[in-house]
Amino acid sequence: MPGPWMRMAQLLAVIGGTSLAACGSSGGGGVTSSRVLIPKTGQTVSRDANAMQADDGALQAGQAWPSPRFRDGGDGTTTDRLTGLIWSTDADVMASRDPTFDGDATAGDGNVTWQHARDYVAKLNAEAYLGHSDWRLPNIRELRSLSNYGAGDISEWLDGQGFANVYPYAYWSSTTWRSSPDQAWYFWLWSGHIAPVAKTMATINYGKVWPVRGRSSLARTGQAECWDEAGVSIGCAGSGLDGELQVGIEPPTPRFQADGAGAVTDLLTALVWPAALDAAATGDCPAPPMPRPTWQGGLDHVACLNAHGYLGRNDWREANVNELESLIDYGVADRDSWFASGGFDAAPGFAWASDTSVDSPGFGFTAFNVGIDWVDKSDDTTYRPIPVRDGG
Fold this sequence. Notes:
disordered N terminus, 4-stranded antiparallel beta sheet, alpha+beta, 2 domains
């Protein structure tokens, strides 16, 4: 029987209409807890050519989405009941409300540089936009949480969920690319990929601003430092950047636990990974990268691992795009050392995800090659599968 705390949490979740995706206490920039649930990607159609039903469209691993996913607040805001985040219903506020603020590139179209995106959020807070003064430029994990990899065009899907003016191209995040601090991460609202781009970029395809507020059931990005538009390190206080706010679930310490027999558990997500992320092999299953498989070959390789009881288990699956992204720490400069400290043999390289582009089924999603992208499934020179399974 649930205790009084859990009954109260369940009641609050019902009243608030949000998904109870993580448990813990709140404080500082966000909820603190040792566990987050990785949501489903949205893919529901299997593209596994060998009918093994081993891709994401068939397995649909992850936390189910609430139905309906979004709740109209009736005040110009919309709450994502999966994450608890509160977004402006208008996804292109600058172009709709303050077109004269935008003097970058094509004036008035709402595409601005990263610094001007920050300036605009400060303006919204100064004017208590929609009655609130705690808006922020979302971090990259918050932006990407709006993905539906089962939709051909995520922006059209979001418009159909009650949002307005969702632009099918790039939105700025408050997260800097640690490897080159004069670049920031963006989210592409058509295809669902993320990548860094120069903070000075402002074109017809780059530079929208979508303000968000509220606490999040997502994991923190890991970023704890701040940089300006030129990539110069700055103090975080009052910046409104990801490094200052650090919104989301704080990972446990230590985050990873190696079992000494070739497997590593992520204590943040409860997912279990092979310590040899890029070279899983056993019995008759040759280890990538020789040869590196195609997208279909990646699924076949993981099926082979299961057939031969890799690390004593037969419930491995090729990781989907959300599971792969959960391994990214956006605050890490030395990825090799960070993964090695967690018990992995090496940092993950170029990896296939078990997802297919709905708009272009001949393309599969990839991760770790500077973000999330999709490439021709026939590529057998670059990408490798990474197995994962559910833990406790």
